[in-house]
Amino acid sequence: MRWRESGPLRGLRAVGGLAFSVALTLLGLLAVTFFIGRVVPVDPVLAVVGDRAPEHVVQRAREELGLNLPLHEQFARYVAKAARGDFGTSVLTANPVWEDVKQAFPATLELATCGILIGAGLGVPLGVWAAVRRGGAADHAVRVMGLVGYSVPIFWLGLMALVLFYAKLGWVSGPGRIDVAHEFSVDRVTGLLLVDAALAARSSGDWSAFRSALSHLVLPASLLGYFSLAYISRMTRSFMLHELAQEYIVAARAKGLSEARIVWRHALRNAMVPLVTVIALSYAGLLEGSVLTETVFSWPGLGLYLTNSLQNADMNAVLGATLVVGTVFIVLNLLSDALYRMLDPRTRDTRAEVPR
After folding, report:
1. Which residues fall within 8 angstroms of residue 292, CB to CB, at 6 or more apart?
2. Which chain regions cross the lipid bilayer (predicted)?
3. 123 and 254 in one domain?
4. Ordered per-residue pLDDT tens for the chain, 356 residues
């Protein structure tokens, strides 16, 4: 006889396995970052007390920070604190690291979200167009555009964009998130400056702060959008070429369906199943990889915070920011897996039948 595993038990086992996997991944990320931070030739104690501090002051600070303990004990203490949400105090800002991260992350989230909207909104149609026009001028143009996006360093593109569109043409605003004149005129409700400026403008009727925030956002968001567009358009083209070569496409054409309906309603619908994962991972890449863009544009996000922390040997801030980035990457990866299962019924787990 066979019995079927009950739904609640199966769901509980899946959730437990997922939680264990996430915890193990975060622990591994924390361990790698922690031990790398301890072996780099930078003494975090000197970052606190200064290079000219007396030896007894250095030793006392080392003991207070727990840096005189063996590495495994230091790591155990840090993990215990991190589990309670305590990532220590930043040397650079003298604030709790978690408070700094909460202030910096919305800026990165806003920039990366606008970037992925541009990248996916343009990359998917361009990829479809290139696949439909395979071998033609449109196909070659899209492939060259993607190749340039892959090959040219993003910091160089950022500098050239600032020189051209800000310094020469004056079409957009320069570095930063908003003009100094509007810096304190917008109440930070969500942390997303564009949203907060729009909320403030609705109540006051003055849209100058919103226009300033949008003008500052356009250039770095477009740069990140172009960077993700290069990858998304290439993968879309690849997926579409695979789908257009399938037998169901031949059958649809034999039935007399229009080419537009075949491409957009049938081929693209099936190509979107793996493409969802590509877009989600691209989004995660923008959230964790916008360090150079934020540095070039002086964008006060998590990337700039991480860069400044590294330059000042602020290891508490480096570890906290890295863990946040890793958590975001894991969450987006899990979300893409869930969407993948929703779009493709073939990947859904069937009820397990176990011999009794």
Report:
1. 153, 154, 155, 158, 303
2. 12-36, 109-132, 144-167, 213-232, 271-297, 317-340
3. yes
4. 444 555 566 667 767 777 777 778 878 878 887 777 777 666 667 666 666 777 777 778 777 777 777 878 888 888 888 888 788 888 778 788 888 888 888 999 999 999 999 999 999 999 999 999 888 888 899 888 888 887 888 888 888 989 999 988 888 888 888 888 787 778 888 888 888 888 888 888 878 888 898 999 999 999 999 989 999 999 999 999 998 888 888 888 888 888 888 888 888 888 888 888 889 888 888 887 677 888 888 888 888 888 888 777 777 888 888 888 888 888 888 787 777 777 666 655 544 444 44
Whether residues 107 and 212 share a domain: the answer is: yes
Tally of structural domains, the chain: 2
Tally of CB atoms within 10 A around 47: 16
Quick check: 184 and 173 in contact, CB under 8 A? no
3-state percent helix, strand, coil for the chain, nearest multiple of 5 = 75, 0, 25
**Which range marks the domain in which residue 299 is found?**
99-353
Question: DSSP state, 89?
Answer: B
Examine the domain organization and report whether 130 and 216 are in the same domain: yes
